[in-house]
Amino acid sequence: MDLENQQRVKDLAEEHGPENMLVVLGGAEAEASGLAVETVTNGDPTFAGPLAGVQLGLACYHVLESEIKEAIDEDVYEEQISMMEMVLDVDDIIEEVKTYREKYSKYKL
């Protein structure tokens, strides 16, 4: 997660409260998605960005997870996201995101 996005997340959490936020990821790789979850829950693991040492514990899911998929209009999902399911390793992405969410998230859907 780049430094600008870290700052945006931090600012929004301060403005609205972390309990009122939901981070929805759309990354194509499990490792990158896991790193993003770790960053917005436990803090920037590289200690380089605005979230270094900041444990927001945000609720964080990937757009391919059933909790998010079910909340999206079927036509919109089909048009915008369904193609991803055919080319990505969905199970690996979901498992990686779930692992970090269970380890560090304070909030859930």
- The count of helical stretches stands at 6
| Count of the domains | 1
Number of strands: 2
Q: Tell me the overall shape.
A: globular
β-strand amount: 5-15%
Mean pLDDT: 97
User: What profile does the largest beta sheet have?
Assistant: 2 strands, parallel
Strand order of the largest sheet: 1-2
The helix content, as a percent range, equals 40-55%
Secondary-structure content class: mainly alpha
Q: Roughly how many Å apart are the termini?
A: 22 Å
Rg, nearest Å: 14 Å
Low-confidence stretches: none
SSE succession: HEHEHHHH
Structure, explained:
This protein is mainly α and 109 residues long. It is 54% helix and 7% strand. The protein has six helices and two strands, in the order αβαβαααα. Strands 1-2 form a two-stranded parallel ribbon. Helix 2 packs parallel to helix 6 (90-104). The longest helix has 15 residues, at 90-104. The radius of gyration is 14 Å and the shape is globular.
Question: Layout of SSEs?
Answer:
Blueprint: H1 3-16, E1 22-25, H2 30-42, E2 59-62, H3 66-69, H4 74-80, H5 82-87, H6 90-104
Helix pairs in contact: 2-6
Quickly describe the structure.
By secondary structure, this protein is mostly helical. The protein contains six helices and two strands, in the order αβαβαααα.
Which features characterize this protein?
109 residues, mainly alpha, two-stranded parallel ribbon, 6 helices, 2 strands, 54% helix, 7% strand
